């Protein structure tokens, strides 16, 4: 009842997950990302611990296939689950249980992994992948959304639409971008709108916040406001 794309941007090194479904608040449970570690999407009859425990196993240095085998071995409900993941080295693995609702499946490419279940057909994943590959020139967030909207255009979740989410991390433990549309008749269109709004001020403001490299961040309001005004002027 969901499809998602996990990707790593070659230019920035950022990890991102975009996801959409005909169910409430998909962003609350499906995407799990840890910078420098990897990204996991747990879906179908979601098991949140696949994301939580899976990232811990990746932190221990386990490879994605080993992580998946460990997770599903401990879960009696594994045949109703779907998950896919990518580690910091770009290695990909997936699991689609035998009881996941068709159409269900997984594809992978250079720097990305796409999985879905309860879809209108295989073309949902194919078109998502084709657009992600073709739109390499787009900024990472826009590229992920464009890919998902292509999958939706050929059917998406066969039940319809309700929620979508986009989460991106770079080298800090807190997200570079975390957008959720929990209940909307056209969630990917709304996600696209929110991403555009994020570029008005948020993406310029976040660089002043504390980071591991600069624990205090920037607190001089004159510097912050001048930078924000310059960013707004550049958009005109």
Briefly say what this structure is.
It contains seven helices and ten strands. It has 236 residues and is of the alpha+beta class.
Word description of this protein:
By secondary structure, this protein is α+β, with helices and mostly antiparallel strands. It has two domains: 2-187, Glutamine Phosphoribosylpyrophosphate, subunit 1, domain 1 (4-Layer Sandwich), CATH 3.60.20; 200-236, no CATH class. The protein has seven helices and ten strands. It has helices at residues 48-59, 64-73, 123-134, 140-153, 187-198, 202-205, 221-235, and strands spanning 2-8, 15-21, 31-34, 38-44, 81-87, 92-96, 105-109, 112-117, 163-169, 177-181. Helix 1 (48-59) packs across helix 2 and helix 4 (140-153) packs antiparallel against helix 5 (187-198). The longest helix has 15 residues, at 221-235. The model has no long low-confidence stretch (mean pLDDT 95).
Write a concise keyword list for the protein shown above:
6-stranded antiparallel β-sheet, 236 residues, single chain, globular
């Amino acid at each position: 009842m969901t499809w998602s794309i996990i990707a790593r941007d070659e230019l920035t090194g950022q990890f991102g997950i975009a996801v959409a479904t005909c169910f409430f608040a998909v962003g609350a449970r499906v995407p799990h990302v840890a910078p420098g570690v990897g990204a996991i999407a747990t879906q179908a009859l979601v098991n949140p611990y696949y994301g939580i425990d899976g990232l811990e196993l990746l932190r221990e240095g386990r490879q994605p296939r080993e992580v998946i085998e460990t997770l599903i071995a401990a879960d009696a409900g594994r045949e109703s689950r779907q998950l896919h993941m990518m580690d910091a080295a770009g290695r990909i693995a997936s699991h689609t249980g035998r009881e996941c609702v068709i159409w269900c499946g997984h594809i992978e490419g250079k720097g990305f992994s796409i999985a879905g279940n309860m879809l209108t057909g295989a073309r949902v994943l194919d078109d998502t992948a084709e657009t992600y590959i073709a739109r390499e020139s787009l900024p990472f967030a826009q590229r992920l959304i464009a890919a998902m909207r292509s999958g939706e255009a050929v059917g998406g979740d066969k039940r319809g639409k309700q929620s979508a989410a986009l989460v991106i991390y770079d080298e800090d433990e807190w997200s570079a971008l975390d957008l959720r549309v929990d209940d909307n008749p056209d969630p990917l269109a709304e996600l696209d709108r929110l991403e555009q709004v994020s570029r008005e001020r948020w993406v310029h403001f976040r660089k002043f916040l504390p980071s591991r490299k600069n624990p205090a961040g920037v607190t001089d309001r004159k510097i912050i406001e001048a930078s924000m005004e310059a960013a707004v002027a550049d958009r005109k």
